[in-house]
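2024-03-11 09:14:02 INFO queue: dequeued item ABC transmembrane type-1 domain-containing protein, len=265
2024-03-11 09:14:02 INFO validating residues
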Amino acid sequence: MNKLSIFFSSRKSWTLPYIIFSAIFVVIPLLLIVVYAFTDDSGHLTLENFEKFFTHHEAINTFVYSIGIAIITTLICILLGYPAAWILSNAKLNRSKTLVVLFILPMWVNILVRTLATVALFDFFSMPLGEGALIFGMVYNFIPFMIYPIYNTLQKMDHSYIEAAQDLGANPVQVFLKAVLPLSMPGVMSGIMMVFMPTISTFAIAELLTMNNIKLFGTTIQENINNSMWNYGAALSLIMLLLIAATSLFSTDDKDNSNEGGGLW
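2024-03-11 09:14:37 INFO prediction written
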């Protein structure tokens, strides 16, 4: 009893619920994906699932197309989200809080409901569903994830750098390019990760906004899982996870380099 009381009174015991939760809902599912990816229906070790992917041109084309859609969506979110975050960070305090809530408010609605509303909007204006609708729906659903990290970074930025640049005679464009943009890059990289990763793995938005005429990589994984092709579906999931992990490592390296340089060019 004394040992238990000492254990539960220590701060280390506070992490126990999180360790259990992570083990059940994160570690074990990831291990199952790896096991299924490298085994066949009989449970024997094999690389046939990956060979099938690399020899299946349709799956590779879908994979490349999904990356392209994710890149386009992320770039549009940056182009639209950065000015919005800049305006919000320079607005008056009460007004900026209200505007931020208005941007975040749609996130309180389920993503499927928002996507169905987008379908209804296109139907109301008699606009065809397809690739354009897909990109519009992606941007609409994920742009708040780009705006808020950038806004948060700009809001916490040390404005003495801007004042110093202005005192040295820099014009507004130079101030933005040499001071504001480099210092806001951590927020931009966070926004890229929060937009790129879910975009490349989603399938519901593509199904609803293209009437299932355009398949993304997430759709391919879902179809294989639904058809009880667990091993091949797990291999595809592992490939997508490796891509996301590589993107995360690239983002971390860029962030470390910017921190070493002091955040300025």
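2024-03-11 09:14:37 INFO annotate: The domain at 61-247 is CATH 1.10.3720.10 (MetI-like fold).
2024-03-11 09:14:38 INFO item closed
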